[in-house]
Amino acid sequence: MEPVLVAKNLSKKYGRVVALESANLELYPGEVLGVIGDNGAGKSTLIKVLCGAVIPDSGEILLDGKPVTFTSPIEARTLGIETVYQNLALSPALSITDNMFLGREIRQKGFMGKFLKFLDKKAMADEARKRLSELGLLTIQNINQLVETLSGGQRQGVAVARATSFGTKVVIMDEPTAALGVKESRRVLELISEVRARGIPIILISHNMPHVFEVADRIHVHRLGTRLCVIDPKKYEMSDAVAFMTGAKEPPQS
Amino acid sequence: MGIPTLPAIAVGMVSGIATGAFNGLLVTRLRLPPFIVTLGTWNIFFALVIFFTGSQSIRSSDIEINAPLLHFWGERINLGGFVFTYGAFLMIGIFVFLWFLLNKTAWGRHVYAIGDDKDAAELSGIRTDRMLVSIYAVAGLVVAIGAWVSIGRVGSVSPTSFYEGNLDSITAVVIGGTSLFGGRGTIIGSLFGALIVGVFSSGLSIAGLDVLWQRFALGCLIIIAVGIDQWIRKVSN
Fold it and tell me: Residue A220 has what DSSP assignment?
């Protein structure tokens, strides 16, 4: 099976600090790839390169086998790489619908939309409702509720629904459970499984080992600016992963 | 300067847009705090106005003879015993237009998103810098229209009139519930804010209160209005 997203020999230096050194990554269709690494291992730089927030010094990114370059998260998104940021990048004072369609609103048909630029609020609300119910999130009563009235888990749901709604090829999730309580984290993990069930592969960055081990199909261990190894969560214990991450144990030869 | 009235008005509108956009460019390109940029350009533009006018006023009678169109919005109409200036209808028209813009178009939604959280808006795919310049330009245009209306209201033109008009408008929108931290506020709130400030100060004038104490009262009004707003927000949360 061909990988959806491939990163080859990515390097990035900040002055004399090497954040990435010929780092590789492959993401296969329909999988959840966990990315773990100690603080300062370069995993957030790796993710920022993949989502377009950081431009690498060298290296290559292939999407569906074709080399791609992007200089901003917007360009990456246009190509189908959506990112759910840790801070979610939602506007609390706007409604769920407004947030889901922020930057890609639907205009009314005909004169009203074309010349007066009127938004088709009904079409957007219907679509938003459909997306949320597909992800099993329709406990949210009113689609025109303001995002600031939602709980942390529900906000995460809105951000995920937005990320998976627009012909997305890859979803990157950065610490999706970091700010959530136990129950809400559980909901987000279910959400990840639902997105995977719909065939969209996910890169999951997290510090939370139990969460990564629970939902990831493969785990990419990042250390000292590069990929140390990829492990199967069914064959290794969490303690092994931590040992690889910190260098306490030699990684398996693959 | 001998320019016919209509082109002169057009020049005025374009200068409004241009000065607004200039503020926007300084804010977005140089990444300066908006407060500092507008404080700086406020003084710069004021100095330029004094320079270009030679600090001279134009008398109302001269305008009436040479460019009556400048007085257009000050013309009065009697509707069932109530006297309105055309400017009042223009104001309602602008409020309706801006209401549609803010609530029914993507541009309007983006204004709120940027005010709420600029970084989030950027990550959502909004080109925030371009948006900000356009917002400042619209503000500049509204100011230019306001200047035209004020010629009709006052009659004569003085380079120093409405020098602190921006402070009055900040007072009005704040009283109207617009958050100084961004992302919250409605056009209807601003309308009522403007009405409150207007009615309040003309009421005090009519009551014969000293200008000094009018200012004092307006200052108290701002603090009370914002205080109530904060309190309501705290209670409703």
Answer: E
- CA distance, residue B53 to nearest chain A CA (Å): 39
Enumerate the residues of chain A whose CB falls inside 8 A of the CB of residue B115: 93
Residues of B in contact with A104 (CB under 8 A): 125
A185-189 long-range contacts, Cβ below 8 Å, gap at least 24? A185/A153, A185/A211, A187/A153, A187/A156, A187/A157, A188/A153, A188/A156, A188/A157, A188/A160, A189/A214, A189/A215
Kindly list the domain boundaries of chain A, sorted by start residue: 5-88+150-246, 94-145
Is the CATH number of domain A5-88+150-246 3.40.190.10? no
Q: CB–CB of A23/A221 below 8 Å?
A: no
pLDDT tens series, chain B, 237 aa: 577 888 889 999 999 999 999 999 999 999 999 999 999 999 999 999 999 888 888 888 888 888 888 888 888 888 888 888 899 999 999 999 999 999 989 999 999 999 988 888 888 888 899 999 999 999 999 999 999 999 988 888 888 888 888 888 888 898 888 888 888 889 999 999 999 888 988 899 898 888 888 889 888 888 888 788 788 777 766
The answer for B 115-154 residues in CB contact with A (under 8 A) is: 115-117, 119-127
Q: What is the largest CA-CA distance in chain B?
A: 59
